[in-house]
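4.2 Preliminary Data

To establish feasibility before requesting continued support, the project team ran the inverse folding procedure on a target of 101 residues. The structure was first converted into the token representation described in Section 3, and no sequence information of any kind was made available to the design step. The complete token record follows.
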């Protein structure tokens, strides 16, 4: 989730892990999604504007959150509610109050 510069870096790194498969990509920015799909050679991978749509539509083992920092907590809470394993790019949250959520 998140296909900006950090998301694309994670895509490149995941391609080096034999048992890892990128099965979907979510980002509200169509340019970022297209760029990540082209750069990561992910043709045919489903893409979603909304991460919640991806959580509902795709059978996921895990997700990687590389969205803007101030969105981490809301995306993370949606992933936790979907009972999917998650890796969150740092920082986990931008406020202590959000960490307690």
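Position-by-position output of the design step:
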């Amino acid at each position: 989730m998140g296909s900006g510069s950090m998301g694309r870096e994670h895509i490149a790194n995941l391609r080096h892990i034999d048992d890892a498969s990128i099965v979907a990509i979510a980002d509200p920015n169509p340019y970022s999604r297209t760029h990540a799909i082209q750069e990561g050679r992910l043709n045919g991978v489903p893409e979603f504007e909304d991460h919640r749509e991806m959580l509902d539509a795709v059978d996921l083992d895990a997700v990687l959150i590389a969205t803007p920092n101030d969105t981490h907590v809301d995306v993370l809470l949606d992933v936790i509610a979907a009972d999917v394993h998650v890796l969150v790019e740092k920082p986990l949250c931008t406020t202590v109050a959000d960490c307690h959520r």
